[in-house]
């Protein structure tokens, strides 16, 4: 990727810039809990966006995306927003830095990536984190800490891309650490690294290749449901609610809002249970929680689709320890915890069965937990 970017930079702008990289993420458990002030348990993955960037001494930003073979150019004032959605991610990051009192001047940039688009692996968060990290380094003497960089990415989604996402994806992309998961308390912003080593098991993502698109998806509607219930209960977020409180007002809520909140309250506890179980090497409990999350996301939160439920069924049939929808839902991947000795059979079976039913094989991505956003002095590739 590095040499491809260097070459394109020379062709488009001449000379060379500085390379930065930021990864996508996976999440072991804790889905749709982030915007409810709950816990999440993600890690950065080995798929990333890489950008070469150089200040150009003007007040214009010039971008070239290798993967789209497209260019865009814009100024840095609010009214200069580019019309291309992909460029709005970068524009949003610039604006959010400026709004926080940071400095951004004109620059030239070429970028590319291998985070599959629409697979629920947070390609957009990787793009935002890459540019947030780079512009903090190049123009701001790194005055924003990594949590603030994550918030810059999140606000970009809210204010320039129409997705009212939580903080998980940008957090994971900015804070990732090789071979570590992170348990983040999304209310306080406190987090812990958990050294991640599976004994006798593998984690693998199975991508349905049903493209999810969070913009205009019912994602924002799910968040609205949760906020409505929290208001009804008189709490700030569903983090402060429990099942007894929810049952007490069940008759006053729509069935849909009740089911959404029930899922979130249950999921909040599952994250804590999985962290404890993982520390004890109790993979059966981890797996049971993953299946329970899938059921909750599919039946109560209703963010699954036929293909993801099918992948989950095949995992159960193959004796996979845990399997569930990962990320926002509506397509994308399942994450699967598989015993070493069942792995090859599971992969072969899931490919064949999915192909038989939907006419194409799912993509398989073994989870490799990697470092977060960084200046790319010694990046591979
Ligand atoms: C998407 C969002 F961007 C995250 O903030 C999170 O809510 C996730 O869906 C669901 O857990 O990836």
UniProtKB/TrEMBL annotation:
Q: Which parts of the sequence belong to the GHMP kinase N-terminal domain?
A: 89-177
Keywords noted in UniProt: ATP-binding, Carbohydrate metabolism, Cytoplasm, Galactose metabolism, Kinase, Magnesium, Metal-binding, Nucleotide-binding, Transferase
Which SUPFAM superfamilies would you find in this protein's record?
GHMP Kinase, C-terminal domain, Ribosomal protein S5 domain 2-like
* InterPro entries named in the record: Galactokinase, Galactokinase_CS, GalKase_N, GHMP_kinase_C_dom, GHMP_kinase_C_sf, GHMP_kinase_N_dom, GHMP_knse_ATP-bd_CS, Mevalonate/galactokinase
What are the GO cellular component annotations? Answer: cytosol
**Could you provide one GO biological process annotation from this protein's UniProt record?**
galactose metabolic process
Give the E.C. number(s).
Answer: 2.7.1.6
PROSITE patterns for the chain? GALACTOKINASE, GHMP_KINASES_ATP
Which protein family is it in?
Belongs to the GHMP kinase family. GalK subfamily.
Q: What is this protein called?
A: Galactokinase
Biological source species: Paramuribaculum intestinale
